[in-house]
Design brief:
about 100 residues, mainly alpha, two-stranded antiparallel sheet, about 55% helix, about 5% strand, magnesium, A-D-PHexomutase_a/b/a-I/II/III, metal ion binding
Amino acid sequence: MTWKTEWKKWSAHKELPSELKKQMAEMNEREREESFYKQLEFGTEGMRGELGAGSNRMNIYTVRKVTAGLARYIEEKGTEAKKRGVVIAYDSRHSSAVEKIEDY
């Protein structure tokens, strides 16, 4: 999928939070490409990236996607893995994606 296709998909999303809509509206062509040209990667230190709209940014959608993937992985590993659980951390010095994403 190209970044323009991904951009259009996000633009058409009716329930996109207003903050992300605003960010998308203010992006220039280069920022659009950078934000949508790939999926944010999960590396050895977890997920890291700029907060913002796009598949290559930290936002509610990228965190939900990785959370669902992690849940499936743990489920595949069986009962013992489920009992161990997970740790989710965030950087309190910045506007944490986890903190802003979902109210628990």
